[in-house]
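Review session, final week

We close the course with one last complete record, chosen because it touches almost every idea we covered. It is Cell division protein FtsX, a protein from Arthrobacter cryoconiti with 304 residues. Go through it on your own first, then we will talk.
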Amino acid sequence: MRLAFILGELGSGLRRNMTMVISVILVTFVSLTFVGAAGLLQLQVGQLKGFWYDKVQVTVYLCNDVPTNTNCVAGAVTPDQKQNIQGMLDSPAVKPYVEKWTFESQDEALAHFKEQFANSPMADSVEAGNLPSSFRIKLTDPEKYQIINESFSATPGVDSVVDQRKVLEPLFVVMNGATIVAVGLAALMIICAALLISTTIKLSAQSRAKEIDIMRLVGASKTVIQLPFVLEGVIAATIGALLASGAVWAIVKFFMGGFLAKGNTGMPIISTGQMFAIYPVLILLGIVLAGVASVVSLRKNLKV
C-alpha cells in the first residue's frame, strides 16, 4: 500500500512538472556530457602515453631500405653495425647513462604500430619494411639525452636519435589543458544542474502543499512524504546521464573513430571498448547529484 502510494505520487509529480523535468534532463545531459568528454581526453592522453611516453625516453632508429640521411646511403643496417651499436650501449663511456635498453625489430615495430593504430586505416597500409628497427633506451637521467645523441647520431647504421618525451610533451600539455577546461565547464554545468533540480523539487513540493498537509495529518512519515520528490529528481537525472552516455559513445564512434581516424596523421585513437568505464561514473554521478540536491532542497523548503 505504501509503495503504491509513493509510485502514485511520483507519477503525479512527473506529469505536473513535465516541463521542469525535461529541463533537468537536458541540463544533466549537457553537464555530464562535458564530464564524459573530460574522461575521454584523459583516456586519449593515456593511450598516447601508454606506449610512447612511459616506456620510451630515447630511440635510436636504424637504417632501413629507404635512406633518409648520409649515414644510410649504403643501405639498411648490417649485422656488424648493429653489433657495434649494441657494444657502444654497453661500453663504459655510455653505460652509466643508460638504465636499460631493448631492441625492437621491424616485425615488432609493425606489431606495435598496428596495436597503436588499430582504429585507423593506416594500420593496413604499412609493412614491416617501411618501419625501422630501433634501440629503445631508458636513461638514468632524462636530461642527459644530448650525450646519447652525440654518441650515436653519426654512427654508421643509425638513421636518427629521437628524444620521444620532448617530441610528445607539447601534445600532452595541450591535451591536459583541454581536459582542465572540460572539467571546469563540467563543474559549472553540474552546479547549474544541481540548482535546477533543487528548484524543480521546491516548486513541485509547493504545488502539492495541500496534499502534504493531508499526509501529515494522517500520520505519514517524513520519508514517505519526501521520497516521491527525491525520486522525481533522480529519474530525470538518470535519463540525462543515459543520454550523456550515448553522446560519449557517439563522440568516440563517429568523431574520433570515424572523422579523426580517417585523417589521422600519427595519433592512436581510443576505441569504443575503452570508454565503457565512463558510463557507470556518469550514471552514478547523475543519481548522486539529483539525490543530494533533492534532499537539501526538501530540508530547506519542506518542513515535515
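Two points worth writing down before the exam:
The radius of gyration is 29 Å.
The chain has nine helices and four strands.
Good luck, everyone.
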